[in-house]
Amino acid sequence: MSRPPSLMLADDKLEELIEQFNTLDADGNGFISVDEIGHALEVVGHKLPKYQIRDLIKEFDTNIKDGKIDIEEFKMMFAKLEDVRNLGRKFKKQVKESVGVKHIAGTNDASSEGTTHSVKANELSGFADWINKCLSGDPDCSPYLPLNPATGDLYQKTQDGIILCKMINWSVPETVDERAINKTKLDVYRKTENLLLAINSARAIGCSVVNIGAGDLLEGKPHLVLGLLWQIIRIGLLSDINIAHHPGLILLLEEGRIANFTSDISDSVAYFHLLSQIAPAEKEISTVGVHTRDLTQRAELMLQEADKIDCRTFVGPSEVVKGNYKLNLAFVANLFNSYPALEKPDDAEIEFVQETREERTYRNWMNSMGVSPFVNRLYNDLSSGLVIFQLYDIIQNGIVDWNKVHQKFPALRKVFLMIENCNYAVDLGKAIHLSLVGVGGKDIYDGNETLTLALVWQLMRAYTLSILKELTNSHEPVMDQDIIQWANQKLASAGKSSKVESFKDHSLADGRVFIDLIDSIVPNSIKYDLVRASDGDEDRLANAKYAISMGRKIGARIYALPEDIVEVKPKMILTVFACLMTRDMQKKGN
């Protein structure tokens, strides 16, 4: 019997598919659960994000959508993925290499053989120039600078992690304790420590590093290095562009003259007018160039005007004309940060609430998980429930029935559908035993601060403890007392005198317990001559900063801030201990 065209697969590949299917079909009933599909496809060469897996299941689960996949459906899934891959290969062979684009093959462990990643030379140039500008006065960076975009030395000069750590501190000051950075004797081990510190610190400020490891950066994989740098630069450029820092922004909310950083700015007209408005009078910005017919020449004239106010950064004429989103966003953000030029509104007419430290920590945690859309405003961006569902799926794969989730919201039914999503999100929380008494879907939709934070905190806690449960191979949930017991045993076995009674223990405020615990997990990692005597608030804060950075340096994914330790915030204290315990369990598993 002949095979359908889409199943014209080599016999050895069919055997591999059948073998993988039979391995997962433990009871031999001819089906595997949809929850196993992602793993099965990964084994045979296709690692996919969850949304693509869900789309494939919807398309090929033909047996009355029963949540099971048989071997023929599995073959069809694989065949479609192979067809798409082969089509992409043929297309790339027919198209000459794009101007300014370099294709890097096989540069991501998550990629299948033959996958390519586009690295744009203009982004390399823009990021390199910005790093040169930001770090020019840092003596630790002088051996690396200036970066030369023409040679691509950025990939080599970021391999030891120092530039990455410095750029994180430019983006969010004091995120990385300088004492934790290895600056001398940079062998592979010490470079890897710096890269772990950079990755976990980037995660803590809200960068998504789901598919980025220290090994990737040590090898200088271009698309991953640029991807991480873009996130760090973006966070730094946008961090102060808010109503709290610039109340005059409230006056712009109804003045939508441009809608994007691509087509709307490609003729440079908006940029000419913007520069003439924000520049100091003595700079004498000229708008004559706006009448130049050639768009590339017009863009160059505009950038010459930007150079008068020292803001010719990120973009060249071609990036303006072609509408490179990233680089134009960065260009405008730098213009704003340099010359906001906004009139302050009447204080009586404006009301805003500063983001709390707790809210920022949760927001950064969610963004580091790679949720979409990116969470900019905690309560607003959770109102549809979509981010919450993604977090549930990360905590317990397969728990979300995506057939019940509304992902599009027509204007006439938007509110109803969003509240329905939020009701389902609350139901899922109760199903995994979160304490949600008095919390309803409408509370999440409305952005009730107390109740929304209660849910988000429990999601963050559940995520942390779910990793611990998996590492300990326990069928029972990990309890607070289990973590405390582990910490005390670890400290005692290393001969440390420190001890913890509870997550509310005020003796934790000086940071010494965490410092000793880190040294117990990785012996001799702590330089005790850098630890303060804890005689005052300044010393305690310095110790807490050192503890958090050293925890990240040994590989712990710590999101808490030094102030959380000094103020003994029990929730965040729990996460620090749990993250360190997770690191210890991972070390034992290696």
Automatic annotation (TrEMBL):
Domain of life: Eukaryota
GO terms under biological process: actin filament bundle assembly; actin filament network formation
InterPro entries per the UniProt record, alphabetical: Actinin_actin-bd_CS, CH_dom, CH_dom_sf, EF-hand-dom_pair, EF_Hand_1_Ca_BS, EF_hand_dom, Fimbrin/Plastin
One Gene Ontology term, aspect cellular component: actin filament
Location of the Calponin-homology (CH) domain: 121-237, 238-340, 356-464, 477-585
Record keywords, A-Z: Actin-binding, Calcium, Metal-binding, Repeat
CDD domains: CH_PLS_rpt1, CH_PLS_rpt3, CH_PLS_rpt4, EFh
Domain EF-hand: 12-47, 52-84
Molecular function GO labels: actin filament binding; calcium ion binding
Protein name: PLS3
Taxonomic lineage of the native organism: Eukaryota, Metazoa, Spiralia, Lophotrochozoa, Bryozoa
